[in-house]
């Protein structure tokens, strides 16, 4: 049940009067022991410099006076919204151990809130789960049977909670609660001081840590007393260990870089004289030769007469920023150089591309001229059988312009579907099948004779189709080269007709063969019947050839000579008159 000093049972004086001498002696010894414990506790609290040390002292006193198996001491945060777990003790394996865990702010338990609100609380538990407000700690295998919670107070204000607990039922009585409250009240002022001191020290520690992380040092100079104060980071910024030297202008200027010293000295003197704020950047030279960059901001406090009495300020180490800026400038310069180089390279590439485009256009013009100059047909199709290029000869043959074909297939431009797709009834394969075969197999194909119709007249075409590939080797279409062989076919047919006629005529011609009997004197020839005939008659009768007569040069000479001889042998007499 909750107890406090006002409703504690009053001592029974009549009963005390009937106590025996032995009982009085025991009570006096107990009172003397309590005095000694309180005196020792006061000495230890006065010497304690941390809440943990003070908590251990009061735990020792409570163990000496009341005994416990577990104990805890929590301090309230200044806003009294949370508690700081200062000391937590529990008996584990027969030994009292510190199970405090991390020192951090936590939400108070319902029992702690009740104690802060109502005063001391005495709890006697009969079973482990009969008080759900209690939060277990330490050994979880067993629960405390007797518990006392009292507030730690000073000046009527609670600054913490003290609790002792026993695994023995009914280990504590109302008198135990009063004694524990007395210990807590006795220690209240000390804990209030420690809490304040701890809060202040912790804030200072956090400030120092924050300054270290931020590389921010703070400085203060009292011009009336000549006393300066530097933060720990302020010492480190100048290459000193904290409190290594006496803070002041001599130690400060000793670390300023010689090239910046005059400027910094004038800025400090101007701040001291006028109180106008300062903000500048400068370098410090550390003993090992390292140069660091600082950015300082300062101000001044004046008295009622306007005289400057105190200087204060902060300096941040910006060395990393300066290095980053230098690296950034170098990167920018490199980038500018690379951009310039790249620009020049792009100018060269652009000029080369312009020349290449011009060369391509020239080559395309040459190629187009070459393609258009041939009477044969040349075309390019994509994988969907659509024309991508047609030369002039093919376009003019079909009474169109080359542009009319682009993007259209054979049927779209007016070719007969049976010629394009084929017609088995007419024995037509269709040249679409040849196109597909070339693009699917990737092999060229020659069609020696391909029927087609131009201007309503049947023609014969000799076609060569080859696959076109991209840079990866993938077939992207085909190139067709077509020659009109209709006239050649007609010439070949005429030639075949003439050859046939000639062969027929030759078959009708009789031939002479074997031995031909001829008279060596008169030159007559004997026929198969045994009759002799002159040569002319025999040849005409045997071969049907007509014989013409002439005289060869040798016979002509001989005949002329005979005539001359004959003329010279006759008398030179005139011919007879008639």
Describe this structure in words.
This protein is of the alpha+beta class and 578 residues long. The chain folds into five domains: 13-202, GAF domain (Beta-Lactamase), CATH 3.30.450; 215-317, Beta-Lactamase (2-Layer Sandwich); 330-373; 374-489, PAS domain (Beta-Lactamase); 511-545, no CATH class. 44% of the residues lie in helices and 23% in strands. The chain is built from 16 helices and 19 strands. It has helices at residues 13-17, 21-47, 51-65, 110-118, 174-214, 232-237, 249-253, 258-274, 319-373, 392-397, 402-405, 417-421, 431-441, 486-508, 535-543, 553-568; strands spanning 70-76, 83-92, 95-98, 105-106, 121-124, 146-154, 157-166, 216-222, 227-230, 278-285, 291-302, 308-317, 377-382, 387-390, 445-454, 457-469, 475-484, 525-526, 532-533. Strands 1, 2, 3, 4, 5, 6 and 7 form a seven-stranded antiparallel β-sheet that branches. Strands 9-8-12-11-10 form a five-stranded antiparallel β-sheet, sandwiched between helices. Strands 14-13-17-16-15 form a five-stranded antiparallel β-sheet, with helices on both faces. α2 (21-47) runs antiparallel to α3, α2 (21-47) packs parallel to α5 and α3 packs antiparallel against α5. The longest helix has 55 residues, at 319-373. The chain starts with 12 loop residues before the first helix and ends in a 10-residue tail after the last helix. Residues 1-11 have low confidence and may be disordered.
